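pasting input
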Amino acid sequence: MKSLRIALAALCGALALAAHARTVKMEVNGMVCAFCAQGIEKRLRAMAPTQDVYVSLRDKVVAVALKDGEDIPDATLVTSLKEAGYDVTSVQRVDAPLAEIRKAAKRK
Amino acid sequence: MKATVRGCFCLLAVAASIGARAKPIAFQDGWTVMAEYGTNTMRQAQVFYAPRFWWSGGPTYTKLIAGDKSFEHEMPGIQVNYLVKRWNLPDAQGNVFAWGGAGSARGTDGQGSFSGVATAQGGLQADYETRSVYASAKQEWFRSSRFGNGITTVQLGVAPYQHDYDELATWFLVQLRRYQGGVLPGKTEAIPMLRLFKGNFWIEAGADPKGRLQLMVMMNY
């Protein structure tokens, strides 16, 4: 019973985090030039829930800011990048706005 | 024996790492427009649309001019490009492309003028690049009842700094080119070049030892 309660609490926590996450941050293999990044950005910007996109070749990161109350499932993002010709190695949902991720990357 | 095996491995490694110049497929649902002015021997223009990231197609035009002016071959055609294999590595990407097509050639040669000669064209390209080094090799073939032309192009490059997406990318390259079919018999062109690209625009330019221009521009959108 106790473990069921813990599992439910963890699930609720994860759902709440996902609901509030404003940005999806993905690590991507194979992005080495601006031309690569262009295709990725074009695909992601075409998705209705996308507010903004940031691509960093240096950090191998693609970050998608989501519109309020909207979401793109991880699997859809991974498939979309696969169809653009790239491999996603990790997907993370973060609360940091895109501007902050961009700023942090520029500081490196 | 050991030296021969080592030599073979080195050649294989170079062949495997040699790669793309401008890629014939940019990205899914993307257009690639390329034009090249190759010293006094080659002119090429290509427009490709990619419905998927692994194939594209469109019209091409290639003109070859013999170094001794003994012939000129113009070869407009339609070409389909296919991404045979891509390696997405953490800090690098490698690709192998193949293409084929058909066209109708015109020109002049030792037998006089000709036009409407059916031509088959094909090619292979492999590339490997990181944000610091670049290697590419490309072989193109053009075959007809009137001629058999080929162009082998190898490019090796280094970047003085590692660019990011929103920055200007700068590359120093050496391009080596040999022709089959009599354009420059027995000669290898070696041209130092500078490549710049930012956003969707790419330009690379250089000059051969006689000061003749080698220029390539490309746009993706």
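fyi The mean pLDDT of chain B is 90.
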